[in-house]
From TrEMBL:
Highest rank taxon of the organism: Bacteria
A molecular-function term among this protein's GO annotations: acyl-CoA dehydrogenase activity
Any GO BP: fatty acid beta-oxidation
Protein source organism: Cryobacterium frigoriphilum
Keywords noted in UniProt: FAD, Flavoprotein, Oxidoreductase
Family assignment from sequence similarity: Belongs to the acyl-CoA dehydrogenase family.
InterPro entries documented for this protein: ACX4-like (IPR045008), Acyl-CoA_DH_CS (IPR006089), Acyl-CoA_Oxase/DH_mid-dom (IPR006091), Acyl-CoA_Oxase/DH_mid-dom_sf (IPR046373), AcylCo_DH-like_C (IPR036250), AcylCo_DH/oxidase_C (IPR009075), AcylCoA_DH/ox_N (IPR013786), AcylCoA_DH/ox_N_sf (IPR037069)
Domain Acyl-CoA dehydrogenase/oxidase C-terminal: 244-384
Full protein name: Acyl-CoA dehydrogenase
Domain Acyl-CoA dehydrogenase/oxidase N-terminal residues, every copy: 20-128
Length: 391
């Protein structure tokens, strides 16, 4: 039975259709029973729980968005709530799915030929194939378009890739990794599907993260990696096509940011009602109520924004600056919110056990990936003023 979240104060979930609500109920039940109990342990050990890959596939996590695989017609608002629901429980799991479904399947859907979509999307949807998305490099992150130095050189029916990538999520175990590289003939950025085991392709796990610790991020080296032409994404002809993917995924990351904030807020509400100081629950003190109300205000405003940006996608009018503003705004509000919620726990807020510290720490990576706050601000600033201020 569908029960709206108390933290969805204005009832945005009422926008969902009955099949969408039913799918969300099933996902929520699985996350509570199988993911929540292991989330802190996986985070602490920096391990990804591989056992959840197939059950999440069965729940539709990698298939809802794509015509080739969706189990029923659904809205972008629904797919946003799916991301929110996952991040509410564990932002590492939401990030894994964001890479598998948003960045990997999304790129193939947006930039692949009909044959490539038919070949890969069903295999990603079933969890048989795990994907990764390699754009960032050791020396280029925000400057991914101009600063990208990985090269692709065509020789007849194949391409040779050389370069390095950094931070690539899922890439320590992915079956295919999308590598963005500059064509040495026309200097345009193109996308290639590189299979694990291809000679010259190596991945090394990045250790010691303080955020999204269960996500496996990799440094990648590409040394004379040969990829056949049929593994080049046929509709990725320049960085403009990469940006089409990022527009979609930035909106989805914004939903995950709201989910991560809600995870911290829900824990804080429960704690405010149970922890007593000065002879009553701390939730009865005015300053504690202030932290909760400011948090709920941030969450409610952010929900309004992500709902609308997803409706724009369904209406066919979503632009890059829409998702850039949404990403910059919602992740900033999330960062404030998780800090207020952590504060409400006093000392207990710095241990994993109380289920707020993980949300607090995970906010940092969400704030910086898929375009930092500054980059998304500059995208919107360019729209407002007509002047690009990147360089
Ligand atoms: P830099 O670009 O070096 O920026 C450093 C600082 O300078 C930032 O504050 C930035 O905003 C600021 N800055 C830079 N230029 C300007 C300017 N012109 N004006 C004002 N400020 C500026 N990438 C992938 O390709 N695939 C992935 O799967 C992936 N997963 C990730 C997972 C995690 C956990 C993390 C942390 C990162 C991941 N990334 C991934 C990389 C991520 O997208 C980059 O970290 C991000 O784009 C920022 O790039 P950077 O780290 O190189 O920072």
């Amino acid at each position: 039975v569908f029960k709206p979240l108390a933290s969805d104060f204005f009832g945005y979930e009422n926008l969902l259709s009955e099949p969408e609500k039913a799918a969300l109920v099933a996902l929520r039940a699985y996350l509570e029973s199988d993911v929540r109990p292991i989330a802190n342990g996986c985070w602490d050990r920096a391990e990804f729980p591989m056992q959840i890959v197939k059950p999440l596939a069965a729940l539709g996590a990698y298939s809802f968005g794509w015509e080739e695989t969706r189990p029923f017609e659904n809205s972008a608002v629904f797919r946003g709530f799916v991301a929110l629901e996952m991040a509410r429980v564990d932002a590492s799991v939401a990030t894994f799915v964001g890479v598998q479904n948003g960045l990997a399947a999304g790129t193939i859907s947006v930039c692949g030929s009909a044959e490539q979509r038919a070949e890969w999307l069903p295999r990603i949807a079933s969890g048989e194939v795990i994907g990764a998305f390699g754009l960032t490099e050791p020396l280029s992150g925000s400057d991914a378009a101009q600063g990208l130095t990985t090269t692709a050189t065509r020789d007849g029916d194949s391409w040779t890739l050389n370069g390095a990538k950094r931070w690539i999520g899922n890439a320590t175990f992915s079956d295919i990794t999308i590598i963005w590289a500059k064509d040495t003939a026309d200097n345009q950025v193109k996308g290639f599907l590189v299979s694990r085991g291809t000679p010259g392709f190596t991945t090394t796990k990045i250790e010691g993260k303080i955020s999204l610790r269960a996500v496996q991020n990799a440094d990648i080296v590409l040394e004379n990696v040969v990829v056949p032409e049929r593994m080049r994404l046929q509709n990725a002809n320049s960085f403009k096509d990469t940006a089409r993917v990022l527009r979609l995924t930035r909106a989805e990351v914004s939903w995950a940011a709201v989910g991560n904030a809600i995870g911290a807020y829900d824990a804080a509400v429960a704690y405010a009602k149970s922890r007593e100081q000065f002879g009553k629950p701390i939730g009865g003190h005015q300053l504690v109520q202030d932290l909760l109300v400011k948090s709920l205000g941030n969450i409610t405003a952010s929900l309004g924004m992500v709902v609308r940006v997803s409706q724009l996608l369904d209406e066919g009018t979503q632009r890059d600056e829409h998702s850039a503003l949404t990403k910059a705004y919602t992740t900033s509000r999330m960062r404030e919110t998780v800090a207020w919620c952590r504060e409400l726990f006093g000392g207990n807020g710095v241990t994993l056990e109380y289920n707020v510290a993980r949300h607090f720490a995970d906010a940092e990576a969400i704030y910086s990936y898929e375009g930092t706050q500054e980059m998304n601000t500059l995208i919107v600033g360019r729209t407002i003023t007509g002047q690009a201020a990147f360089v």
